[in-house]
Amino acid sequence: MYQDKVIQPRFRIADVLHAKGATGDLWKYLYEQDLLYTVLEEARQYFTDLEITPDQLAAVEELTTDGGLEIYHQCSPFWDGEDDLFDVTSLDDLDLLPNLRVIHGGDEAMMAAPGTEDTLKARGIAVG
Description:
The chain is 36% helix and 6% strand. The chain is mainly α. Strand 1, helix 5 and strand 2 form a beta-alpha-beta unit. The chain is globular.
């Protein structure tokens, strides 16, 4: 969506909030709503409803979980990466990525799920 543009249209939380009537400084709006360091419900709903085809999922061979990626800032625009907001706590959906071979930048965020190291090793998925 943000790099190789396979999934369109590109989600932008600012557009969604402005359509809901948020005006002016987005930081001030989110601060006043006590939403600065949370995943915004509008983003959660969009990505929950987003349909990704089995073919698109099968094409994923590498996954990057670096906290500086655009996706994190669309879900929580002022997230600073200093907490566990986006840590992976379950690998239940790993079967959806049958060709995943490498997870980049996932050392800390990925290891929050119980049994992660054993699960990834058994599937031949490297973390680095």
